[in-house]
């Protein structure tokens, strides 16, 4: 009695130790996971903030740079559009020598202004300088059409800023550097190139005056060439800096809309990710700590994981064996009867059939070839029954050479008999193995629910009694619980007693 109590105490202590070890293991794992998650979250948050701050800085840099480029273009243009000499040479009558010397000779070469257009009070072009060549007014129409709204806005800006002085008007503030500049700008496409466009009324800078009425407007077009964009990107430290249509942005690119209103073009560049630097610097240290913790826990974890896996596999195997036949993998009698009860109790269908199958001459095969070949025959027969029944019902093995089928579909007499014939024919087919071949036969008893019985057990019993009648009447046949035997096809040669060698 004392020994029993001691054994129980030791078992209880062993259990407590195992539970305590598991608790310690779980706590250690939880600490390591919490440490990893907290540090990962912290690094991720820091990286996300760094990425967002960097993205905002980049967009701010790009916006400032484009504003600066537009202001440079406006300032370059104002060398003509904000000048008394230009007022005298262009407003009333055009001085073509002035145009050649002051526009054609240096707008393109010095400032990269590809096209300069002057729009008269009647909105018609009065001159066009393309690069360093003076062109006809007719060629300027496309430029004026493209920027007609800018021309109108420039005139409105002038109208709000002009002041009467003497017989004319002047603008006292600087047209570019003042808080409310006179020029208007946009980014638009001309002849397949994206251009910065600046429009400004030609105004005097000193003593000249403009007459009343619609003023002349100077338009300048400066293309944003790939070389220009590359230079801007290099200066700002941005990779793949370029201009794209707003609907064709490259993947993983940051964007900045350009121009007025709904943007037709955007500046794009590859996003910078400071978070990668943060991760690159911090990750080795974090990984090192986690590795040390993992190594410390690995020995404990491995032991418990292996034990749990063995237990899990054992439980799964036991659960499978509780409801399945170990040799064939088919459901066993317990699972079959449970399924039968479920079908009848839930009234899933109004009719079903049970087929009890018993092998003929199986003992002869066992005696002749031994149990290994007998097991092979059982497995082969099980596979043939399963194939014949298919999804029409459930096949199970309930004994040594006994099988049973719960049939849910094709329940009319002709269909059931046809299935029984197919099962018998399949079972009777030759079974070839290394060193020989053999065959067995089969008899089948059939009963219907609720035609022949009202409970699951009574239906199975009726089918079993029909099987007994079938074997009594000569084997190799099907006998119906509610009728006479179904005569078999001509018997196959009995290879159970005289097995032939495999070919």
TrEMBL record:
SMART domains, per the entry: GGDEF
Annotated region described as Disordered, given as residue ranges: 479-503
A Pfam family recorded for this sequence: GGDEF
Molecular function terms from GO: catalytic activity
Keyword Membrane among record annotations: yes
PROSITE patterns, sorted: GGDEF
Keywords for the protein's UniProt record, in alphabetical order: Membrane, Transmembrane, Transmembrane helix
Transmembrane segment boundaries: 20-37, 282-305
Alphabetized InterPro entries for the sequence: Biofilm_reg_signaling, CHASE4, GGDEF_dom, Nucleotide_cyclase, Rev_trsase/Diguanyl_cyclase
Superkingdom: Bacteria
Domain GGDEF: 350-483
NCBIfam families per the UniProt record, alphabetical: GGDEF (TIGR00254)
Protein name as it appears in the record: Diguanylate cyclase (GGDEF) domain-containing protein
Organism, as annotated: Stappia indica
Taxonomy of the source species: Bacteria, Pseudomonadati, Pseudomonadota, Alphaproteobacteria, Hyphomicrobiales
């Amino acid at each position: 009695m004392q020994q029993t109590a001691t054994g129980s105490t030791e078992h209880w202590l062993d259990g407590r130790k195992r539970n305590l070890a598991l608790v310690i293991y779980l706590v250690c794992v939880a600490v390591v996971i919490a440490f990893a998650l907290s540090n990962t979250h912290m690094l991720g948050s820091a990286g996300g903030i760094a990425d967002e701050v960097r993205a905002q800085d980049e967009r701010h840099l790009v916006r400032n740079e484009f504003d600066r480029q537009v202001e440079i273009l406006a300032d370059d243009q104002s060398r003509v559009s904000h000048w008394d000499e230009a007022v005298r040479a262009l407003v009333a009558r055009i001085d073509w020598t002035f145009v050649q010397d002051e526009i054609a000779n240096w707008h393109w070469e010095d400032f990269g202004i590809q096209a300069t257009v002057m729009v008269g009070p009647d909105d018609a072009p009065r001159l066009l300088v393309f690069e360093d060549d003076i062109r006809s007014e007719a060629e300027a129409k496309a430029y004026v059409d493209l920027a007609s709204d800018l021309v109108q806005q420039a005139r409105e800006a002038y109208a709000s800023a002009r002041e009467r002085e003497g017989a004319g008007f002047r603008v006292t503030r600087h047209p570019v550097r003042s808080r409310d500049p006179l020029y208007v700008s946009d980014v638009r496409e001309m002849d397949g190139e994206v251009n910065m466009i600046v429009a400004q009324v030609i105004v005097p800078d000193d003593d000249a005056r403009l007459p009343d009425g619609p003023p002349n407007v100077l338009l300048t077009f400066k293309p944003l060439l790939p070389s220009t964009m590359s230079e801007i990107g290099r200066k700002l430290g941005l990779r793949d800096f370029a201009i794209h249509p707003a609907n064709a942005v490259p993947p993983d690119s940051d964007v900045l809309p350009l121009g007025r209103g709904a943007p037709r073009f955007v500046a794009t560049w590859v996003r910078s990710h400071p978070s990668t630097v943060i991760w690159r610097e911090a990750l080795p240290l974090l990984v090192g700590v986690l590795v040390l913790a993992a190594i410390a826990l690995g020995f404990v974890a491995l032991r418990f994981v292996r034990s749990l896996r063995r237990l899990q596999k054992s439980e799964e195997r036991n659960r499978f064996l509780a409801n399945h036949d170990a040799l064939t993998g088919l459901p066993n009698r317990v699972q079959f009867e449970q399924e039968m009860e479920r079908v009848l109790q839930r009234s899933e269908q109004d009719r079903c059939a049970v087929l009890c199958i018993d092998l003929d001459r199986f003992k002869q095969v066992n005696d002749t070839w031994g149990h290994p070949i007998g097991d092979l025959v059982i497995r082969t027969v099980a596979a043939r029954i399963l194939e014949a029944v298919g999804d029409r019902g459930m096949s199970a093995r309930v004994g040594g050479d006994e099988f049973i089928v719960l049939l849910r579909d094709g329940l009319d007499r002709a269909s059931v008999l046809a299935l029984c014939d197919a099962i018998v024919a399949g079972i009777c087919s030759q079974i070839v193995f290394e060193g020989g071949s053999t065959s067995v036969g089969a008899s089948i008893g059939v009963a219907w629910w609720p035609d022949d019985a009202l409970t699951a057990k009574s239906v199975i019993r009726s089918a079993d009694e029909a099987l007994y009648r079938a074997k009594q009447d000569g084997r190799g046949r099907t006998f119906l619980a509610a009728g006479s035997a179904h005569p078999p096809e001509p018997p196959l040669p009995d290879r159970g007693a005289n097995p032939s060698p495999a070919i």
